[in-house]
Design a protein that fits this description.
Structural class: alpha/beta
Number of strands: 4
Number of domains: 2
Largest sheet: 4 strands, parallel
Radius of gyration: 17 Å
Strand content: 5-15%
Order of helices and strands: HEHEHHHHHHEHEHH
Distance between the termini: 23 Å
CATH topology of the largest domain: Rossmann fold
Number of helices: 11
CATH class of the largest domain: Alpha Beta
CATH superfamily of the largest domain: Alpha/Beta hydrolase fold, catalytic domain
Helix content: 40-55%
Strand order of the largest sheet: 1-2-3-4
Amino acid sequence: MPLAQHFRVIAYEYPGHGWTTHATRDLELPDYVAHLDGLLDALGVGRAHLSGESLGGWLALKYAAAHPGRVGRVLLNTPGGTMATPEVMERIRSLSQAAADDPSHERIRARLEWLMADPSSVTEELIDIRRTIYARPGFAESMRHLLCLQDPEIRARNLVTDSELAAVAGPAMVVWTSDDPSGPAAAGMAMAEKMPDARFEVIKDAGHWPQWEQHEVFNALALDFLTGKGD
């Protein structure tokens, strides 16, 4: 992992999303912020760079605004949190819940292909990993709680505000792509413009996962930013 050659890298599971826990109630951004804060405390990490994709970027923004003293640089990869497009929200909800209710090869592939600019980027290994997680007993119910952020009313109260963007004190980088199904690059550009010290980059020929489809380009950008070489 290129980042691990320069940093101590901590990749952790969000509550309800992976192998260790199920969500037993709706989880909103304050829940994720509190979980991250507790994790840093438990690991004895006083200050950290944050790198987050999609919901991870949404969380990174919220955390950086709420705890500026604990955050260094903030890498936001196709971040959520500023848009509430009904068609996109319904697509995420329908594809995700269908895959959790019936974790078949076809439904998992359909969910993953939605993320990609090139459907052939979805490998059999990627499908198998996602199927194993989704097939765990109780995960379908957990997914219903995780998808609460696709409900318009719940999403509205969790959106990133302009004041929160302005409160991201450290250097930030917003990465968007040429083919992101969640929204246009203009959304990411607007986020960068509202932060005091942010740059904006677009990666071509990628969808919602540039770190997967264009990993060499993404890794080069990430290292350039996180090491401060691009300053």
